[in-house]
Amino acid sequence: MRVLGIESSCDETAVAVYDEARGLLSHRLHSQVAMHQAYGGVVPELASRDHVRRLLPLVREALAEARSDRTSIDGIAYTAGPGLIGALLVGEGFAAALGKAWDKPALGIHHLEGHLLAPLLEPKPPAFPFLALLVSGGHTQLVDVAALGRYRIIGETLDDAAGEAFDKTAKLLGLPYPGGAALASLAESGRSGEFIFPRPMLDRPGLDFSFSGLKTAALVALRGRELNDSVRADVARGFEEAVVETLAEKCRRALTQTGHQRLVVAGGVGANRRLRERLAAVARGLNAELYFPRTEFCTDNGAMIALAGCMRLAAGMRAGFGINARANWELGAIGD
Ligand code: KG4
Ligand code: ZN
Fold it and tell me: At residue 333, does pLDDT exceed 80?
């Protein structure tokens, strides 16, 4: 079983070929970050148009590197949602057309299923079942993963996603979009304890998150101060510690509550070094194992979509055939 995967839900065009027996054969990615930077965020129409431009050359490159052609590909997996609807439709239209031309199934994949399966691309993959912390620019969820396609959301953000909070706070600190990684590197030189921000929702039971108050706390902390490099670094450090501490404590509670022995962290914020260190400590304390994808597969990529498609096709799952693109899509409702 060999699958071509296509990701185009937001501002990355990404393509990969995954083989059930041999693993990942190739992956290619074009980031639109430079194009959107002038606007301080993703411009949906520009994103769609750029996906149209990039997709075909990337598919050609990925197929060539994987030494694959239409005869060796068994299916085409693409991100069907959630995401920017125009961007999703470009990927879906492309995949559906290629599927028709090649007489191969085109399979719509849930973007977050892709993220939470991404650690399975690594040499030491987690076995099912596991607890997943999904932390991306658009989502923050704790997912009880029983098996492929069987996902139960046990906690999620009530407002901003963790990545969104990173990006908005980064903007306050004068960092270019998307600011998550830049804020994290600024925080490296910041001093711990100079700014102490609230740990939202830790004072009450439950597994939900709320991050919108944190950027306001950062704004209030900065008000009336001279924004020199050391203040900016200290605020970045305080903000990062508040987010990481909150995520880690909720993971500890969720592991205890579910009894899972494996914790998977995925999505763009999963690339954060301090978060990984804290989660490793939480897992150690509970005799659990921590799994995460390599940094480039934390953020959006085609490999996770190719892998999810390959696993679904190999398991004989039929959900996702037909035209599927949707901007909003509950992970708990994807079926098999
Ligand atoms: O998963 P992803 O690539 O896209 C979505 O599906 O949303 O996640 C992107 C998010 C952005 O908010 C970005 O700022 C954040 O992940 N991010 C980070 C780091 N690297 C990326 N946040 C904190 N620390 C990082 N090192
Ligand atoms: Zn994503």
Answer: no
